Every structure is written in C-alpha cells, then in structure tokens.
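Schema walk-through. Below, the input block comes first and the output block second. Nothing else is stored per chain. Lengths vary across the set, and this one has 108 residues.
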Amino acid sequence: MKLGQLASTARDLFTAKLVYGDAVERDGVVVIPAAAVFGGGGGGAGDTAALPVREGAGFGVLARPAGAFVVREGAVTWVPAVDRTRIALAAAVTVVALAKILSRRTGS
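--- output ---
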C-alpha cells in the first residue's frame, strides 16, 4: 500500500463512528455508547542509487469503553464505564506500597 493510500484509509477510519457506537432505543430510553480512542502512526520513503524506492508506514489504535450518553424524557445524562480490573489493580498497588512503607518504619 502506498503512503497516500494509507493516509486516506486512516482518515476514513478515524471518524466519530469509532468513538460513538450505534444508538440503542428501548422503552423510550436511548443509549449512545462512547469510547476513548487513541492512535498514532508514521511512515517514510527512501531512494538510494543502490536500492529502488522503498516505502513503509503503519499506525495503531487503542480503544476502550468510556461510558454512554443516556437520553430519557428529553434529558441527557452521562454514565461512565467502570473498569473494575483497573480499580482492583490500583487498589492492589496501593496496598503493596503501603505494606512496604509500613514494614520499613517498623523494621528500623
């Protein structure tokens, strides 16, 4: 794939549809899911007398649920997604750090 084609493909990929999912309606309530999306990329080309023109490029995307907009009776509210694994990991790291601090104090 040529660099121009890759840039065009990336531009088409990174749209609001990547961040906001399709709205779901049930019993008069509309839910619009949303995600946090991060991405980046790069590319380059080179031509030397010994080698023909070479091109290369790539990009990556990381997406995770962020929450949802809920539309009920004309009012819109934001409901954040709760990542229980991340919360548990943060709690475990905090406990280990506190245990190390306290063991140093009692050991002296």
